[in-house]
Design brief:
Blueprint: E1 2-5, H1 12-21, E2 26-31, E3 36-37, H2 43-46, E4 54-56, E5 62-64, H3 66-76, H4 89-113, H5 119-139, H6 153-162, H7 176-186, H8 189-198
Parallel strand pairs: 1-2
Antiparallel strand pairs: 1-4, 2-3, 4-5
Length: 202
């Protein structure tokens, strides 16, 4: 199994899940601007969408879209309890969180990173993120993780996206529960291993 990734990008989420689940895997770094892998492959040929992550199975099949990848990985190792059993309300709650992160947070960060986005639009995007963080801060009151005391695939994705905040000049100190949550996830041994492998700093 191979994960195509870019350091610190949304591919960090399945990278963390692979380690948390104890699944053997290889890493292949991607230059997302040049659309080349570190070994020189044309990334467009691997993923015509041009984005990370891609999970490549041993039989050559490839899967894209991080929220789907993390659920598939967790289902391969049910003993890891990284996602609740199918058909349960808790499973639906984890999927609800994954969709929230993807639609309300991940896609709101995107325009702020693009140099061609007008400053006024970036300002609106930051304001929208702030509103989402207001709500998230209340949701995390008295909780270790999104689902309570148990780390799930939703936490891997939430952590990956929210930690982009300083890069877009958003100070998480305004949301103490959210900041404490990000700091807590960052201290998990498998998260630290993923950071080290990607050459990232906390």
């Amino acid at each position: 199994m191979k994960l195509y990734f870019a350091p610190g990008a949304c591919s960090l989420s399945p990278h963390i899940v692979l380690r948390e689940a104890g699944i053997p895997f290889e890493l292949e770094q991607v230059d997302t601007r040049e659309k080349k892998t570190k070994s020189g492959k044309d990334y467009w040929a691997i993923n015509p969408k041009g984005q990370v992550p891609v999970l490549e199975f041993d039989n050559g099949e490839r899967l894209t879209e991080g929220p789907v990848i993390v659920q598939v990985l967790a289902d391969q190792k049910p003993a890891s309890a990284l996602t609740p059993p199918p058909g349960t309300m808790d499973r639906a709650r984890v999927q609800e969180w994954l969709n929230f992160v993807g639609s309300e947070l991940h896609k709101t960060f995107g325009p702020i990173f693009r140099p061609t986005t007008p400053d006024e639009y970036k300002k609106i995007s930051r304001e929208n993120l702030g509103k989402r963080f207001d709500w998230l801060d209340t949701q995390l009151t008295g909780k270790q993780y999104l689902m309570g005391d148990k780390f799930t695939v939703a936490d891997a994705y939430m952590f990956t996206v929210v930690r982009w905040s300083p890069r877009v000049e958003i100070n998480l100190a305004k949301w103490p529960n959210l900041k404490a949550y990000i700091d807590r996830v960052a201290q998990r041994p498998m998260v630290q291993e993923a950071f080290k492998a990607e050459g990232l700093t906390m």
